[in-house]
Amino acid sequence: MDPYLLLKAIGFFLLVIIGIPGNMFIIIQFVLVKIIEKKLLPTNIILTMLATANLLVIFSRIIFQLLNAIGLEDLLDESECKFMIFTYRVSRAMSIGITSLLSCHQCILLAPSTKVWSYLKQKVSQNAMTIIIILCVLLISMYSYTILISHARKNTTSSPYTLHLIYCDADFVTYTSYTVNGTFYLLRDLILVTLMILSSIYIVYTLLQHERNVRGIRSSDRGQKSSAEYKASRAVILLVALYVILFGLDNSMWVYMLTLSYVNPNMNEIRVFLTSSYASLSPILIIITNPKLKNKLKYSYAKKTLPKNATNNGLVFSISKSDNKDTIR
């Protein structure tokens, strides 16, 4: 097997085995919280929907990249190609949009309690799911054109403005439609990334102010609540940093490719790997920075590894009790 193909197969295989269990764990745990506690904090609603969007990215793109890397050809017919490309475009845009919403929501939570900010805090927190649904409907409408331009790969000569997407092609036919599509993608990502960065800058500034002001009151109830708020903020910053790094690497390669007269297909594969990595790597950050999820994972691990008599004596039960003290958003 060609060394590059082997490396590509291993890379996409790692994304699959990390991404699917990680996103599924987040979704299942927060669904259980909703069922048991009858409520779910707005931030956790956003994280659940982010994990759902990431899971769709994995199923609609990364798995097919893996299958292609190990040599499986011509797996999708015309209708399946349309569905796969449409699902990938919408779910990837949802993943970016929800990450941006998460950073903006956390920024609003940390904003001063003025009349305007208090109103925004209440409205955004109460309508987090509604905002996500509106975003989803908007993106479905915007990407409906992909159904028309997508088709299974053919042996005939394709248009010079055709994007080759694993088993399928997206044919834009004209230079104008090709450039409009590329410009739209770039502007969309730039706007959302700019919102993420601006929100994160404000969060970092607020965190620094917080460190100076609450050193003496960390033991109080207010200090504990505030500490939970700011731990959640740090988690959001890490997620944004991960996306911005991957976005920067991806678009740096894209700009470089524009300067070349001939683009090696391997460079496109690397870009796909970078753009898809967020869907698999972000669950790791979410789990290790969210105490509720982290404690659930520790409890599940302890339950499997402790002897049966230790479980019966209540050692595992004591671990699960500590999980109920978690107050983080």
Give a structural overview.
- This protein is mainly alpha-helical and 329 residues long.
- The chain has one domain (3-306): Rhodopsin 7-helix transmembrane proteins (Rhopdopsin 7-helix transmembrane proteins, Up-down Bundle).
- The protein is 78% helix and 3% strand.
- Strands 1-3-2 form a 3-stranded antiparallel β-sheet.
- Strand 2 (162-165) and strand 3 (168-171) form a beta hairpin.
- The protein starts with a helix and ends in a 6-residue tail after the last helix.
Supply database-style keywords.
Rhopdopsin 7-helix transmembrane proteins; 78% helix; 3-stranded antiparallel sheet; 12 helices; globular; 329 residues; mainly alpha; 3 strands
Strand residues, percent: under 5%
Query: Got a strand count?
Result: 3
Supply the CATH architecture.
Up-down Bundle
Work out the helix count: 12
Question: What is the helix content?
Answer: over 70%
* CATH topology (fold) name: Rhopdopsin 7-helix transmembrane proteins
Overall mean pLDDT stands at: 81
Shape: globular
Supply the CATH class: Mainly Alpha
**For the terminal residues, how far apart are their CA atoms?**
47 Å
Describe the strand arrangement of the main beta sheet, using strand numbers.
1-3-2
Instruction: Provide the CATH superfamily.
Output: Rhodopsin 7-helix transmembrane proteins
